[in-house]
Amino acid sequence: MKKLTILTNGIIKENPVLILVLGTCPALAVSTQASNAVGMGVAATAVLLCSNIFISMLRSVIPNKVRIPCYIVLIAGFVTLAQMIIEAYAYSLYQALGIYLPLIVVNCVILGRAEMFANKNTVLESALDAIGVGIGFTLVLLVIATIREVFGSGTWFGIELPWLIDNNISIMTMAPGGFVVFGALIALVNKITRGQAHKNKEFGCTGCPSADACGKTARKGGSGL
With CB atoms counted within 10 Å of each terminal CB, which end of the chain scores lower, N or C? Predict the structure, then answer.
């Protein structure tokens, strides 16, 4: 794969939220304000970049049977470091993200890229993949948060918007509003790509890091659900 293709795949063709439908929990939970969405996106991107690089470097050293626990330990270390930095230098963001910051450890986007890409490619390619996926993740969070904050609170990055500040739709800041925006964006992407983006992706057990633990169904290529 060309380097540019690797970088852009995570932004468009393999967008983690709108195409692969991963990381939806933080995407909906912290997207009530644009500032929180950017903070979560940057934190997740930093962890993804560091974990991809180190997993790619150590892929020939980590035993295959314990690779998933090793990945989680590495990711947890980087998440702890990111959490401490945010708490020290951006305490208000640390409070706003709450439990969803340490939960980056089990974010399917990060673990999935570790298993499906970093474990099989060079350090440079893994770094480019992490940057592309991180940018795609952050952009989607920002779009969702912008729509919800503008129409739900009448602000954008905390800046009050004329007319909207007094005529906001409060449900947009609640869970139903998040699901409505999320579903609308997926429908829009599906409409623009005419369904090709989803048809070209494998949603079975083949690429799942836990496929080996799902029993005979997963090994036969079934859904594993």
Answer: C
What confidence tens digit (pLDDT) does each residue in 174-196 have?
A: 999 999 999 999 999 888 877 66
Which pLDDT tens digit goes with each residue over 133-148? 999 999 999 999 999 9
Angstrom distance (rounded) from CA 165 to CA 224? 47
What is the residue whose two structure tokens read 């929990």? 25
Coil, helix or strand for 162?
coil
The conformation of residue 20, written as its DSSP 8-state character, comes to S
Q: What is the mean pLDDT of each run of 10 residues along the chain (225 residues)?
A: 84 88 88 93 95 92 89 94 94 91 89 89 93 94 94 90 89 92 91 68 50 49 40
* N-to-C CA span, the chain: 32
Return the closest-CA partner of residue 101 out of 74, 67, 76: 76
Distance of alpha carbon 198 from the chain centroid = 17
As a whole number of angstroms, the distance between CA 201 and CA 225 comes to: 18
pTM of the full predicted structure? 0.83
Residue 164 contacts residue 154 (beta carbons within 8 Å): yes
Domain ranges of the chain: 3-193, 194-225
The closest of 100, 67, 108 to 83, measured between CA atoms, is 100
